[in-house]
Amino acid sequence: MVEVILFMNSSIVTKIDSSCYNFRVRWLRKLSNNLINVGGVFSWDIGIDLGSTNTLIYIKDRGVVIDEPTMLARPKKKRWTGLSAPKSDLKRPVAYGYKAKLMWNREPRQIEVVSPIKNGLVVDMEGLESLMAYYFKLIYDVPSKYPKIFKPRVIVGVPSFINQVQKRAIKSILIAAGAREVILVEEVVLAAVGLNFPIDEQNGIVVVDVGGGKTEVSVISMGGVVIGKGIKTAGSEIDNAIVNYVKMKYGLLIGPNTAEKVKIGVENNDLVRGRDLETGLPKSIKMTREEVQEAASLELGKIVKLVKSVLDETPPELMEDILKRGVVLVGNGSRMKDLAKMIEMETKICTVLADEPGMAVIRGCGRVVEDVSLLRQIKLVSLG
Ligand SMILES: Nc1ncnc2c1ncn2[C@@H]1O[C@H](COP(=O)(O)OP(=O)(O)OP(=O)(O)O)[C@@H](O)[C@H]1O
Ligand SMILES: [Mg+2]
Q1: Considering the entire predicted model, what is its pTM?
Q2: CA of 318 to the centre of ligand 1 (A)
Q3: Which atom of ligand 1 is nearest to the CA of 209?
Q4: All domains of the chain, ordered by start, with CATH?
């Protein structure tokens, strides 16, 4: 009898124990969820414009803190075996951002300068992860009124044409670099938010984003892309066109860095220095603005054609709003002289270049980071 009572008691005790345990687990889970939610309120969210040419990072309450080329320099990969394998330190990148860009095409042969994003797509996951981890380390040091106990939530702009694999790659890279949560939003939508367009309305607007590695043309209405198309033609292709133009016309070989300077017009009197293809010796020529326009005209023509093809497929109901609101150009590549004029002439729709066009996407990220309720008005990129 006593044994039975003892047995009953022990089973009751284990039952009570297990229910206590379950209760404790549930309570702890609830507490950690609440803490994460509280973390959400106080978290120092960040916005990232992950461009093929430039990476910009916005921190809540601080503004844009990083604006650097999307580049890194690292020791060249070799097939190391056995004892000759290098220590991990040797494989670490040697420069990031501006420092890496300065080394571009001037690097010693043991080093390679890479752009982990090409034409809007991640082409070097390892490179992008170390670049992002480096920037995250930097932004942790930026003073902020929000305690950095929790990892930040990240709003990141992505091209509208990327596939699921690319989306997952970006998400996992940012999580590995130090993000708590990653929210993907189309860059063109962020640009519209950054330009303060009332995007939740049914009125359409055409956003043309000419970056360094890709051009996107999208019609935006009710916080999402109605129709969008992208091509590889952008700033870098224009630089290549200038390199080819100078080679054909003057028999002079120049690098893409020089071509970019000529395009932007920062080179003194547009004096272009390079290597003479005939003699193999240094030579300099003077290039006029008209020549730069001539060299770029074919590429600019492709962008105009893309705008026309998107308008061609736009639902007629949106045409009236588009005629009223016009076409807006964003991205630094759209600062090419006469691009807005060319689009306006071909489409007969008022076309304007945004103020500081290269900042539109990151300003959109900033607006969302400062006021998370905006996320309800825009269509987020789903991960399938
Ligand atoms: N004043 C200028 N005139 C013409 N082109 C310019 C000017 N300033 C910068 N660019 C070009 O803009 C390009 C970079 O634009 P941006 O920073 O918007 O690209 P990104 O966002 O990094 O790339 P993407 O959006 O294609 O992924 C470069 O090719 C650069 O040469
Ligand atoms: Mg861009």
Answers
A1: 0.86
A2: 29
A3: 25
A4: 46-70+115-195+361-376 (3.30.420.40), 205-234+297-358 (3.30.420.40), 239-295 (3.90.640.10)
Distance 332 CA to ligand 1 centre (A): 4
Q: How many A from CA of 362 to the centre of ligand 2?
A: 9
pLDDT digits (tens, 9 = 90+) for 75-110: 987 655 555 555 555 578 999 999 999 999 888 999
Q: Who lines ligand 1 at CB under 6 A?
A: 51-54, 120, 211-214, 234-236, 260, 263-264, 331-333, 335-336, 358
pLDDT in tens, 297-322: 999 999 999 999 999 999 999 999 89
The beta strands (E) that lie in the chain are given as: 46-50, 54-59, 63-69, 72-75, 95-96, 111-114, 117-118, 121-122, 153-158, 181-186, 205-210, 215-221, 224-231, 252-253, 271-276, 282-286, 327-330, 351-353
